[in-house]
Each structure stands twice: as C-alpha cells, then as structure tokens.
Specification:
There is one protein chain. By secondary structure, the chain is α/β, with parallel strands linked by helices. The chain has 3 domains: about 10-110 and about 220-290, FAD/NAD(P)-binding domain, CATH 3.50.50.60; about 120-220, 3-Layer(bba) Sandwich (FAD/NAD(P)-binding domain); about 310-384, Enolase-like, domain 1 (2-Layer Sandwich). Helix content is about 25%, strand content about 25%. It is built from 8 helices and 23 strands. A 5-stranded parallel sheet has the order 3-2-1-7-16, covered by helices on one side. A hairpin with an 8-residue loop joins strand 21 (about 325-330) and strand 22 (about 340-345). Helix 1 (about 15-25) packs parallel to helix 6. About 40% of the residues are buried.
C-alpha cells in the first residue's frame, strides 16, 4: 500500500501565509496544502483596517481568497508544537499532522500596555476594526494611544468619519520616531487643525490612568511571535532567523513575513526584520516556493507608505543615515511636494517621497543603479 501523500503546511493566517500558499502552488500544482490559523477568519489584507475600510472600501474586498488556490484553510486552529525531525506539527487539540514542507508565517502580536489594563482594544485584527467601527458609529469618544503608523492613520480616518478622537503618545510630535523634523510638528498641527485632541509626552506606564474616553484603542507597535519556532529549537534573534533563501535553521522549514530576521544586502547582509505589506507578500511567495523545492534568493528593496488627510508619503530603501538626519528638500507648506535623502558613508540608503505620487519608479532606479548620486542629480531624476 502506497504511503499517503504528505501535504505542505503553513502556520499563520495573515498576508504572508496566503502568499506562501500561492508560492507553493506555483511550484506544486497538485500536492495538498493545509493552512492553520489561530484567527477566526481566513487570510485578509490588513492595511485597509486603518485606511481603506474607512473610506468606502467594503469588507468583501479585503479577503485574499486563499481557498481558491486549492488550499484547505483551518481557522481557530492553534499549532502548539513542531517536531522538525519527525516532520510533524501538533495542534493545541492534540491532533498531529505530518508535512512535506513547512512555512512559518506566525506574524506579530500587538504590544500590550504596561499592566495590561482591561477594556483596551489593541488594533490589528478585523475584529478590532469592527469594534472601533461600532463605537464610531455610536458617537463614542475614542482615545488612541500611540502616535506612529496606526495611531495617525486610524486617528485621521476616525476624524474624517466624524468621530471625536484624541491621540496620546510619548513623543513630542506625531511620527517623530519615523519622520525627520520638521514634518512631525507640521503633521501634529494639521491633526490639531482638524479637531483631533493631541496629548504629547504621555508615557504609557504601569499605574498610569487610561485616557478619559468611551473607548481606548492602542497601537503601540508589535512583537514577533517566535515562541513556536524557539520551542522547536529553531534559531531566533529578535525574529525567526533565516538565510537568504528564507530557510530556517531546521531542514525543510521556511519562514516569511514580519516574524523573520533575514539578511539584507542594503545593510551589508546584516539581519533585520521588516513589518510592511510588500515584505509580507514577497517573502511569503518565495518562502512557499522554497518549501516546495524551488528556493529563491530574497533580497528586497524595502518599501512602505502611509497617508492621511489627502497627504501621501512613501519610503523606499531604509530611512537610516549618518549624522542627525537626512538631507531634506521640502516646501513651506505641509502639502508641498518634498524629498528626504538618506545616506550612510556617502552611499544612498533610502528616499522619502513626500506628496510625490508617480516618482517611485525613479526612486527605485536611483537606489539600484546610482547610489552615489548627488542631491541635485537625485532631484533632477525624480522630477524627470
């Protein structure tokens, strides 16, 4: 009697997990694929939770339709252990499942407030979006803790939806840890002008009272979910450590998405994590291909974007530089087009495109082909 066909297994229910399924299927059109997610939903796009769903995008459009790739999606199914030598996983129910190849796309969990106070919504999942949406439609006063990506995007979306919003954050201005001066101060002024209450220098610490509001929402960053990999003996260093092909330290196991620590040539091959949409999709696809027997080099050009109140900004490469900050070429008004140029030891490391839609293709070319360009050469190329 022939041995049963072992399936490919994916652990995780986010964008990287869906991309991994598609990567496997591009190499192995027939072999079964099982996806185990501890969420109650099949994979969906997360970025619309703080943006598009508040501006007319319907929930029906966020689903990734993973099952259409002939994938068996098991929701509410937590994988509790991996046996790398036996090529098996074990679920919290005790069920065991063998695998031909395994992709870990376990993602991140929201960072909790000190003391883990009751009644706080940690904004990351579809359920958290629905909770905040119901509160906004009921006219509730909503306080957001955090002045980074989630805080600014959600705060702006809520305000445009007519909600009463306050933002509470430890920095002196919004996005201060991400964007160079004077942009954070200008952004804070724009938020205040639109009626959002700003409470800077509010450090979240144990025993600190929560803001006075009907609903408190926290968006203070994430923590990689490495416990499953670590307990299985895989190498972990702030994320699941992988090589340039997204292989973990255990044979037959690949990893993808914001949980992985991978070598990035832009930073001399040093390992780092990324938490952006393009990384989830690209690394997931290639990890899936690798698990199916067709490993690929993964050396992305990092990219992320955000926006609010009609403003858009994008970063390609890494926003890292020598000295105190990048070379900035900004207009006098917040909505004027601008450019930030990041260099390390004279080499172009990243570009900030402020209100410059359509310039990304030129920016990528500069980083790939002309990293020694001067400011004037960069501006000429972006304007071309």
């Amino acid at each position: 009697m022939a041995d049963p066909v072992r399936p490919f297994v994916i652990v995780g229910g986010g964008m990287a997990a869906d991309a991994a399924a598609r990567g496997i299927r591009s190499v192995e059109p027939e072999r079964p694929i099982l996806l185990f997610s501890d969420e109650p939903h099949a994979p969906y796009d997360r970025p619309p939770l703080s943006k598009g769903l508040w501006h007319g995008t319907s929930e029906e459009r966020i689903w990734r339709d993973t099952a259409d790739e002939a994938v068996t999606v098991r929701v509410d199914s937590r994988v509790a252990a991996i046996d790398p030598e036996g090529h098996e996983i074990e679920l919290s129910s005790g069920e065991r499942q063998s695998y031909e190849g395994l992709v870990l796309a376990t993602g991140c969990r929201p960072r909790r407030l000190p003391g883990n106070p009751d009644g706080v919504v940690y904004f990351r999942s579809l359920e958290s979006y629905r909770t905040v949406r119901r509160a906004a439609e009921a006219g509730s006063r909503i306080a957001i803790i955090g002045g980074g990506f989630i805080g600014t995007e959600l705060g702006a979306s809520l305000r445009e939806a007519g909600a009463s919003v306050s933002l509470h954050y430890p920095e002196g201005a919004l996005l201060e840890r991400i964007l160079p001066a004077p942009l954070p101060r200008r952004i804070a002024d724009a938020f205040a002008d639109r009626g959002i209450e700003l409470h800077p220098h509010r450090e979240a610490s144990g025993g600190t009272p929560l803001p006075d509001a009907d609903l408190v929402v926290a968006g203070i960053g994430v923590e990689p979910r490495v416990e499953l990999a670590r307990d299985a003996g895989l190498e972990v260093d702030g994320g699941i450590r992988v090589d340039a092909h997204l292989r973990t330290s255990a044979p037959g196991i690949f990893a993808a998405g914001d949980v992985v620590s991978f070598p990035l040539s832009l930073r001399g091959g040093r390992h780092r994590r990324l938490e952006h949409e393009s990384h989830a999709n690209e690394s997931g696809m290639l990890a899936g291909m690798g698990a199916a027997g067709s490993p690929q080099d993964y050396d992305p050009m990092p990219y992320f974007h955000s926006g609010f109140f009609g403003l858009t900004w994008e970063v390609v490469g890494l926003p890292e530089c020598d000295g105190e900050g990048p070379d900035l070429h900004l207009g006098s008004a917040l909505d004027d087009p601008g450019v930030g140029i990041y260099r390390v030891e004279g080499r172009l490391m990243g570009l900030l495109l402020w209100n410059r839609p359509g310039a990304m293709r030129h920016a990528r070319t500069l980083l790939h082909e002309a990293p020694g360009s001067s400011d004037s050469q960069i501006l000429d190329r972006l304007n071309g």
